[in-house]
UniProtKB/TrEMBL annotation:
It comes from the Bacteria. Belongs to the class-I pyridine nucleotide-disulfide oxidoreductase family. Residues 18-332 form the FAD/NAD(P)-binding domain. Pfam families: Pyr_redox_2, Pyr_redox_dim. This is FAD-dependent pyridine nucleotide-disulfide oxidoreductase. It comes from Hyphomicrobium denitrificans (strain ATCC 51888 / DSM 1869 / NCIMB 11706 / TK 0415).
Amino acid sequence: MPKDNPESGADSQTIETDFCIIGAGSGGLALAAAAAAFGQRVVLIEKHKMGGDTLNYGSVPSKALLASAKRANAMRTASPFGIRGVEPLIDFAGVREHIKRTIANAAPNASPERFAGLGVRVIAAAGKFVDKSTVVAGDFRITARRFVIATGSAPVIPAISGLQDVPYFTNETIFENAKPLPHLIVIGAGATGLELAQAYRRLGSQVTVLDAAQALGDEDPELAAVLLTKLSSEGIAIREGVRITRVSGEPGRVIVEFETARGAERVEGSDLLVIAGRTANVAALGLEAAGIRTSEDGIKVNAGLRTRNHRVYAIGDVIGGPLSSHTAAEHAEVVLWRTLFRSHAKAAGRASPRVVFTEPEFAHVGLSESEAREKHGKIHVLRWPYHENHRAQAEGTTDGHIKVVTSKRGEILGAGIVGADAGELIQMWSLAISQGLKIKAMTQWISPYPTLSEINKRAAFRYFATSPSNPYVRKVIALLAKLG
């Protein structure tokens, strides 16, 4: 005999807890583990896969794919190092196995068993609010002191004529591919689209990228140009400012028609990848019953990540803004500080770093040059090129530069890096901005030689580059010399 609907309250088990977290992605997992460590009763609800998009379809598999592509390119371009370059033989089934193995190796950290061991009760079901203080999930009714929505986001499928009749990949399906893709057409020239475009180009595909706007249009154009030039030099065709009008084809043959400033054009390829942005997962959560408001970007929250319902917080992709695993984890920390320690912690916003994991990498934190000028007026822009760095010269990674923006008084407002290991090098600037350091502090540390991190210090010294020619400074130096 079937059970009654748990929303009715009949034949369902009631759970009272301190935290009820809906969604076991990066933010949900981080908050569940931390709250349990502080002795809180935690219920974690996940209707699909533990680890969310990050583990299963996002950062983890994409970096595994990029690692395979990087090794293929290293074989192809080894000649300048005295090693004969060879064209690698790509085993796509082996690449897929590498991706699956990487996910499997990371999965135990996000497993239900691990979290049960931490004292977290995991419920494998969809969660839905039935009123302002109750969530149902499977056969359970959960009441909690605090609810946290961490349901993430999903790929946007644009309304393109014919798309529904043509097979295509998204970031949730591309990592299952185990065959060559002779000509991959990518719709979307954002970070993920360009990462996957470069990966498949290096694995032997012809690649065309189409975007209605400008590639990396939200990034500093000076730095973005360096990366886009590199991608073009590798043979990736990037078409910007196009309006896609129709898609047609069949398995192994796809045709994309589009309008440009020059008129109607078309490109024919073997496969299609749609990376056209993401949308917050808010459907079927019963948000109206909970008195929670939404916008086009997702759930509306205040600076402390609390919704209109004082019991409910929302974190990560589901609130819009920066879409990244580390942003979701940082949001989890904000909620923890606010709920357990009555802190006034706020989300970092623009002070949260972001990275495009192409080669060269592109990383940024804080304000861009244009944002800094609009907000602060007079600013200083400091640069230093990779080609002046001895480690970069030895490793043949001289493309790119660092760009740092400060106020006229030396406050660090933002930093961007395009070049080798930019995602690692940006972390020093992320720390500096979070701690309110001035540019002088970035000159008062010792960088081991030879390392790429020296570019951070060299850029910082540019702030003081005009000091020796300052007449006042020269008089002080002359006076001190006489006294000494």
